[in-house]
Design brief:
About 0% of the residues lie in helices and about 35% in strands. The protein is mainly β.
Length: about 475
């Protein structure tokens, strides 16, 4: 290696190793060059720097090219890589149809499958196949013929070739060509066709009248066999009454039939009970207060009437007969609401469950008290549900005993049990009997209101010594309601 001072040239004949940057040229005005001499002549291959506006650094690839005809190319950052030689690629800016977009091309078009079309890419160095996956053949349908499956296809009508009408149903103007169909009469929405009779087979909503606001008439399916309902001739024009409307009848209406084993009834039902005003009522009224009574009569072996007695201060009355009387069996005063009930006129008793029902139990023979200080049952009565007044009476005898306390009571608990005994309502003290004097006492009225059959006991109690005193008791109950 030698350096020519005159020419400022560094010459390497064989091999030289350099560590660190190696600069050629002058930083001022001389362009640096590298010359490679060939071995056959004094001819050289020269690399020299261009006149750049900034420093440029080029980095060589880290491996050799993948094959022949590769050149060194550089990115804008000066990173060099191997690329195919010019002439092996088509021009980047030309228009191409491609399978997928390529970032290096600037004017390509991507081939995309449309409706009923598929595009199959066979891969590099292969083919792209376009297939029809929609209509691939034509098949004749009912009353249609097809002359070919693909290509030019002719479709012919092999079904209806002429039209014939039906008497009284459809009229036809001609068999072929321009054919007009018509009905014997108009049936459009504004028409008024006439039919001798009509059968509607729907199980509900058989007849709908009107358009925007309609009225639907429904005949429910009979439970067993078909029915015939006849509209009677009333001798003039009339109006149908409806269950959901307030109907006014100007003539007497009667429900009358011979119906063995079944009941005829007039029923008024309000199926709603969510409101205090949801009533079911039967209203009877007269034209005024001067005469005529609003009443209902009941006819069987005898006739009963009840209603508002217009001739007796509008008092409510229930009595035997087809009209109201001034001394009814039951009367309720209109002014005060006081109830007058006509009592029995013979020596009978009220039936079980009726007001005035009487229940009694007596112990008439002298019976020993339980042990001193022990509560016992003198007698009892069983009462069914209702409102009752109970009375208890006792006669006590010393029977040689020294008695210091005597009590009677009324309770639903039997045996030596003081539950429910309250002085002075259901438990009272009696005067003490002596050797020369018996004593008596009672609970005049003790009201009980029960919703099931209940037994009430007359309780007896005494405190004594020397001997055992005796008692006689009577227990009475009267139904008030």
């Amino acid at each position: 290696m030698e350096k020519s001072a005159a020419l400022d040239v560094l010459s390497v004949q064989n091999r030289a190793d350099f560590i660190g940057p190696l600069f050629f040229g002058s930083s001022g005005n001389q362009t640096g060059q590298i010359s490679f001499w060939n071995s056959a002549s004094y001819l050289a291959t020269v690399f020299q720097a261009g006149n750049t506006t900034a420093a440029m650094t080029y980095t060589f690839p880290t491996a050799g090219p993948a094959g022949n005809n590769y050149l060194l190319g550089s990115s804008t950052a000066g990173v060099m890589s191997w690329i195919n030689a010019p002439g092996t690629y088509a021009p980047i800016g030309s228009s191409y149809v491609v399978i997928g977009a390529d970032a290096t091309l600037t004017a390509e078009r991507v081939l995309t499958a449309g409706t009923a079309i598929s595009v199959v890419d066979g891969g590099a160095n292969s083919t792209v196949t376009i297939n029809n996956i929609g209509v691939t053949s034509n098949i004749a349908g009912t009353a249609i013929s097809v002359s070919g499956a693909t290509g030019a296809v002719t479709i012919n009508n092999t079904g209806v070739t002429s039209a014939v009408g039906t008497s009284n149903q459809v009229n036809v103007s001609g068999a072929t060509g321009a054919v007009t169909f018509s009905t014997p009469q108009n049936i459009h929405t504004a028409a008024t066709p006439t039919f001798a009779s009509e059968t509607l087979t729907a199980t509900s909503n058989q007849l709908i009248l009107g358009t925007t606001r309609t009225v639907t008439i429904t005949a429910p399916t009979p439970a067993t066999s078909s029915r015939t309902h006849t509209i009677p001739d009333i001798g003039g024009n009339g109006t149908f009454p409806f269950l959901e409307a307030a109907n006014i009848f100007t003539v007497t209406q009667a429900i009358s039939a011979a119906s063995a084993g079944t009941s005829l009834s007039l029923q008024i039902t309000n199926s709603d009970n969510s409101n205090a005003a949801s009533n079911a009522s039967l209203a009877l009224a007269t034209g005024g207060a001067s005469a005529g009574d609003a009443l209902i009569t009941f006819n069987s072996a005898s006739t009963w009437a009840m209603g508002c007695d217009n001739s007796n201060s509008d008092n409510f009355a229930i009595n035997v007969g087809s009209s109201l009387v001034t001394s009814p069996s039951i009367g309720i005063a209109q002014s005060s609401g006081a109830v007058s009930i006509k009592g029995t006129t013979t020596n009978d008793s009220a039936s079980t469950g009726y007001v005035g029902e009487y229940v009694e139990s007596n112990v008439t023979s002298a019976t020993s008290f339980p042990s001193t200080g022990v509560i016992g049952d003198g007698t009892s009565v069983s009462l069914t549900a209702g409102d009752w007044d109970i009375m208890a009476n006792m006669v006590a005898t010393a029977n040689g005993a020294t008695v210091t306390n005597v009590q009677i009571g009324i309770s639903t608990h039997s045996g030596n049990d003081a539950t429910g005994l309250v002085v002075p309502t259901s438990d009272i003290y009696l005067p003490l009997p002596t050797a020369t004097s018996n004593t008596s006492g009672n609970i005049p009225i003790f009201r009980v209101s029960i919703n099931a059959t209940t037994t009430y006991y007359l309780k007896v109690y005494a405190e004594y010594s020397v001997a055992t005193p005796k008692y006689q008791v009577n227990m009475i109950a009267r139904r008030r309601r």
